[in-house]
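Structure in, sequence out. Go:
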């Protein structure tokens, strides 16, 4: 029997550079991470033992095929992952254990590991675009930029002032206009943003939502006690993030709430009434919520992995959900990271909330994120 011909590959040079560069030339499977180049010897050349693998198959007959994808899109960076030949064969041979969503998480986690474990040494030739998201209190731009060292800013800081009492209807447009102003030229993949957020949760999530996860984004946390944006030299805290879905949930639910308990516990009675009586509410939490939870950038990458998986499962388990509600009790950069995991063209309208000590319920509706295609 004649084997079907493999479809021709159309990887661009740029796609290959991004894929190999962001993967640091290593297999993306954490238990492997083998160097995909075997060094030359006195008698033999360098040998490439890595494979460019497709997340959704290169053809309609391959593993995890998505017939709606065009041949060109199948060979784009977003649909590719770098693997050693052993891991490639195992992942493609065991498709039930390795669905597309999981492989995307695997890729994102590996690239986060590369950024965290193999930091840039010395100044990069490409600077960062610093973005300051300022709330009711001014941010010392000089102190923020010091956290970039040994890297540097390519332009003066762009300050977006969004007070905690800002008009929600105006705030979203201001954020969109600001993002467009500093990303209107060039390819999003080549943009490098250094984000210094110290504003309302809604503004932070909205900024991440508009930025998406396409550009290269470095997030910084403000450590009030030290008055510094420099990440402390401490051991990476034990990962305590967990997710809980309702034991008995209605797949036909039209509204879903997602609560992030990171800095403090969100009490059920503080939620709006429509989400307190048998509603579908998903919880993402740490074992002991604390304002000191965030200490390392790697925690943000883990939060991104968990959040992405939660959003994908909600989309799968609650296909009729017409509206999401996000309640975030956590640090500002974490809110930006959560916003980045939302797909502006696929995520349903999402209501954001702000906490207020006065009155009840304590979480009040603020910005409504609307899909870009509506």
């Amino acid at each position: 029997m004649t084997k079907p011909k493999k479809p021709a590959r159309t990887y661009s040079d740029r796609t290959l550079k991004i894929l190999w560069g962001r993967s640091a030339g290593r297999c993306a499977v954490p238990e492997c991470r083998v160097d995909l180049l075997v060094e030359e010897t006195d008698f033999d050349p360098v040998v490439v033992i890595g494979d460019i693998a497709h997340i959704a198959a290169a053809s309609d007959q391959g593993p995890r095929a998505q017939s709606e994808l065009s041949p060109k899109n199948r060979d784009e960076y977003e649909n590719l992952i770098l693997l050693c030949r052993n891991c490639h064969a195992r992942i493609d041979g065991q498709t039930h254990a390795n669905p597309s969503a999981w492989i995307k998480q695997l890729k994102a986690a590996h690239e986060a590991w590369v950024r965290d474990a193999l930091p840039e040494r010395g100044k990069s030739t490409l600077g960062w675009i610093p973005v300051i998201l300022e709330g009711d209190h001014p941010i010392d731009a000089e102190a923020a930029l010091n956290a970039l060292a040994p890297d540097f800013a390519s332009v003066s800081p762009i300050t977006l002032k969004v007070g905690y009492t800002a008009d929600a209807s105006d705030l979203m447009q201001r954020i969109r206009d600001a993002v467009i102003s500093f990303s209107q030229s060039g390819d999003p993949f080549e943009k490098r943003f250094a984000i210094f957020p110290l504003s309302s949760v809604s503004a932070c999530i909205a900024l991440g939502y508009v930025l998406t996860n396409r550009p290269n984004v470095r997030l910084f946390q403000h450590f009030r006690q030290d008055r510094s944006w420099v990440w402390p030299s401490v051991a990476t805290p034990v990962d305590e993030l967990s997710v809980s879905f309702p034991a008995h949930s209605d797949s036909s639910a039209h509204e879903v709430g997602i609560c992030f308990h990171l800095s403090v516990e969100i009490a059920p009675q503080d939620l709006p009434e429509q989400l307190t009586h048998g509603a579908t509410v998903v919880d993402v939490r740490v074992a002991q919520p604390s304002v000191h939870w965030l200490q390392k950038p790697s925690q943000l990458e883990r939060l991104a992995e968990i959040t992405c998986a939660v959003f994908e499962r909600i989309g799968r388990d609650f296909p009729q959900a017409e509206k999401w509600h996000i309640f975030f009790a956590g640090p500002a950069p974490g809110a930006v990271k959560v916003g980045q995991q939302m797909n502006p063209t696929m995520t349903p309208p999402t209501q954001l909330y702000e906490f207020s000590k006065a009155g009840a319920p304590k979480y009040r509706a603020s910005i409504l994120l609307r899909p870009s295609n509506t």
